[in-house]
Each structure stands twice: as C-alpha cells, then as structure tokens.
Specification:
single chain; ten-stranded mixed sheet
Length: 477
Amino acid sequence: MATPTSDISSARWPVGPAPSTPRGALLVGCGAGFSGDRTDAARPVVDALMAAREPAVLIFETLAERTLALAQLARERDPAAGFEPLLADLLRPVLADCLAHGIRIVSNFGAANPAGAAACIAALAAELGLRVPRMALVQGDDLMGEEHRAALQQACGDEWPTARVVSANAYIGAQPIALALEQGAEIVIAGRVADPALVLGPAAAWHGWAWDDWDLLARGTMAGHLLECGSQVSGGYFADPGYKDVPDLAHVGFPIARIEADGRCTIGKPAGTGGVINSQTVKEQLLYEVHDPAAYLTPDVVADISQAMVTEVGPDLVRLDGVRGHARPSHLKVNVCSERGWLAEAEISYAGAHALARAQLARQVIGTRLAGQGLLRCDFIGVTSVLGDDHGRWLDHLPAESSAMRDVRVRWAWEQPTARAAEVLLREVNALYTCGPGGGGGVRTQLRSRLSTVSCLIARDSVECGWRWWRAAGEGA
C-alpha cells in the first residue's frame, strides 16, 4: 500500500490562491451521481485521472431533496450518523490513490453530519494504513437553529408545516469549497451545497476566477451540471434499444470534465468503460432540471445556455461552448422537510385463468373493508400501475382485451397519520390468503414514515457560510 506524502499533493495543487497567469486545464471526475449509486464507479475514473498526470479532482454527488431529512433523522437516532451511508464503500477503492497522486476529493456526502463523515474517513484511512487526510468542512447550510425560524416561517407563509420540522437546509454555493482547496484541503466535505458547486468550487479555485465574473462562473456551473448526475451524461438513463443504443451499459463509465481557464469544458469518460458520450447525451443532461435555459438559477450565478454549443470533438468526447452568465440571485433556495404520517404498501398476486377478475374482486374486498378511511390507491402491476391515478379511474374502465390477462400483481398504497392506523391495510391484505379470491399468493407488505418538503427563498445575507478544518475528537474543532 502506498503511503502518500503532503509533498506529492502540493506538487499538483500548490497551497494559496491561483497565480495571475493562466493555468492549464483542471480535470474533474465524478464518482457518484446520487446516494445509492454504484460504489465501483470511481475506480476507472481515478485510474484515468492518475494516467493523465494533470491536476485533478474527484467529486461524489450524493444528495437529493429529501436525503438530508433522512440523514437528519438518522443523526437523531445516532449522533455519529447522518452522513452518506455508503461513504466508506465509495472511498475504500480509491482513497489511497487519491492521496498518493494529489487528487482532491470534494463531495456533499457530509449530509447532516459533515464532521461525522470526516471521522468515518479518518477511520477508513487508519484501516487502510494511510495518514489522516487534511479535511475541510463546509458549514452554513443548516438552518434548523431558532435564529432562522422566524425568517423561514415568513418565507414559507401558509405552507409552513404544521407537523414537526425535521430539517431546513439552504442551497449554498461554491465559494467555501474553493477557499478550502486554496488552503490545502485534500478532502472537502459539504452538506447541502448546490450540486454544480462541487465542480465550480475546484474550477474557480484552480483557475483563480473572480466571484463576480459571471461568464466564467456560469461555465464552471454548467460543467458541474453535466457531471452532477454521474453516468446520466455517459449513457445512463438514456438507453432506448433501437432508438438510442448504448454499448455495454452494464459497465457504463462515469464522466470526466476537462475545464479550461476560459471555462470551456470537454466531457469524456475513462477508456475501456461502457456507455457513450455524444451530443445527444450531453444535451439531455444539459437540459436536465433546467426550468429556463436562459436563466438557470444557482447560488453562484444565473447561467444562460440559450446560445450554448455542443460539439463532438472525438469518440466519447463532447465540448461545451457559449455559456454566458448573469449576476447571482439575491436569495437562496431552502428546503424545509417535516414529518407526514405513515405509508402502508401491500401486494398480492393472481395468475392463470380469470386472473384479472380475481384481482378486481380483491380490490373490491379491500376497498369495502377500508371504506371511508382515506384515499386508498390500487394498481394492477403489469396492467396499469404507472399511468393510472390515485382514484383508480383507469382500473374502472379497463379495455375488454385486458380480461385475458393471466398474470396480475395487485398493489395497494395507503397513507395514515399513525403507524398503528396504517398497519390495518397490511393485515387486511394478508387476510386475503384465506378471506379473498381463490389463488392469491406472494403477499408482501411494507410500512414506512413519510416526509413532506416545502421550498422557499431566503435572503442571501441571512445565511452565513464558510468552512473550517476538521479536528479529531479531543483536538478541538
């Protein structure tokens, strides 16, 4: 096992602000696009970054809208938890090489507990026989403190939750990430930063971009937008056989962006991996979750891709040009998550002759037993389970040819204020074994708590963002 030294790291990325003369390109690879992504995806990316022998960063994007609320609940149960559950699995294959080759790591895998994530990484380093990396913690996104409550209630208005609030986090920008990298952080651990900020921060730090140079910030942001969902830009969530073919999707390669000093970026992937990067995959990801191509709102800049150009410059290599930027918004988006009762789900199967008729009868039995106790959704998986509505209107008017269906799995979903009330559905569906139509089998049930999310805008100057070094317990924060 290689033992990295700080000299190797600093040779790739010197401590301090970028020089006034332009630097060469920065490579940014993506190792994950959401919490639960493949844990072996980063290995080929790191191999490619090592082979390139250029300044490089590896990002992991692991937060979605409600992930933070789930992390906060996990931290309530265990103060040492609340960060990305797969953190050790994500880093174990690549941590030693990243440290040895000066590849910085930037991620939002801190979720509700960035310090806990740092402690986990320190323990992993010890397990692997490595020194403890220099780790920086981004702070300021957590607005659960009482000092923010009045402003959030005012911003949410009538939508302010009546149930217990679980989390309140602002989407903060890239500047704390950049500052930490400039000061020599090898791993930057954030919670709720905007997804593209994971790339913009390193790009701005490396190239020394000013925080009011809107065109450069917009270009770095859109490079981040192309990487933030991992393999979505390299063929994942894209394939449609015969229409949009993707080779070797089972081994899809995760993307790497080459970001120049003028902000232009070229997207590629590790050699020998599956997937495809072409103008179609890049355009799909470029427009992903963008409500207005001329005004893509982020904490750092308002990006404008209305005149952007996407050009294939080689096999699995696509360049993005023409992105412009406008002054950043005066307010930050905040997600407020609260408790929202319990969801019971239950399934049973009917197969063979008259399968659909028996499934309809089972639906009638459960509907009668639970009548008047709230909206009960029922789906016939394989017949109508995606396009149907909560009230089952489609099920009431199935086409005649559906009667020939010989393989139907019935699923119910029922929301109730308490777990005890929701459990009634689970018992009723289980009872169909002997009290329902003939031939039912394969009952499965699930009960889980629900969360509700409301978003609002809060004045930027009311959110204090920054970063600090991580210190092990006993060393002080």
